[in-house]
Amino acid sequence: MMIILALISIGKGSGDGHPPVASLSGVPNLFGVCVYSFMCQHSLPSLITPISNKNHVGSFVLADYSLILGFYVLLSFTAIFCFDSSLLHAMYTLNFTDNCHVLDVPFLRYFLGLFPVFTISTNFPIIAVTLRNNWKTLFHREGGTYPWVVDRVVFPLITIVPPVVVAFCTNNLESLVGITGAYAGTGIQYVIPACLVFFSRRHLEPVVGRDAVNKHRSPFRHVCWVYFVWVWAASCLMFVTANIILTETKT
């Protein structure tokens, strides 16, 4: 809906966006946002697991990521040409609410304005339950059980209190996404998977031997790609940290 509305406005010649060819000022924060946008990887297990014949799974994943990239590109480019960059909200759906020349239907304005609320309302309970179970597993004692207060009160509270506190402390979505994407996202999506690949290969090599061939092996199977992911993760952290320090120094 947002893509079509922006395209209609651009097609009518009423687009307010006149973006520069390039702006290096936003590059540091871009690293954190890119990591955050990579959360589309969470859907891969549910896509790959039901496939019995995985001979063409690489092509399937490539098509999936190409489709996701296409939507990201369409959403981003229609936004920067439709709306004035100085007035563009970090939460893109808010551009279609009050005083919007693109959309004049009140119901749709409210719907797009509340769309993040709908998605968070459905995703947050699932993510919170998963995190609570991870906490319980992390502190699990062999053969022991947790007291009722710890199991039903403490673990849920340490799961839901931090995001609620952050929500009350800031409404700067751009910085929030950049920080969470760069620090938490880098560890979850870059560092930990690369470590799993590296150490699992070292563990399996004595078992299956060096000559064993995996017919489903990735084209990025060389160990240099693992090192590249670690270097990329460190670069993201440095750029975002430098951006935060420089931004705070200016203010």
TrEMBL record:
Domain Amino acid transporter transmembrane, first and last residues per copy: 21-197
Transmembrane regions listed in the UniProt entry: 65-87, 107-131, 224-246
Coiled-coil residues are none
Segment forming the signal sequence: 1-17
Indicate where this protein is primarily found. membrane
Q: This protein's superkingdom?
A: Eukaryota
Task: List where in the cell it is found.
Answer: Membrane
Question: What membrane topology was assigned to this protein in its record?
Answer: Multi-pass membrane protein
InterPro entries, alphabetized: AA_transpt_TM
Give me the Gene Ontology terms describing cellular component: membrane
Keywords tagged on the record: Glycoprotein, Membrane, Signal, Transmembrane, Transmembrane helix
Q: Which family does it belong to?
A: Belongs to the TMEM104 family.
Q: Known PANTHER family for this protein?
A: TRANSMEMBRANE PROTEIN 104 (PTHR16189:SF0), TRANSMEMBRANE PROTEIN 104-RELATED (PTHR16189)
What's the protein name? Amino acid transporter transmembrane domain-containing protein
Q: What is the lineage of its organism?
A: Eukaryota, Metazoa, Chordata, Craniata, Vertebrata
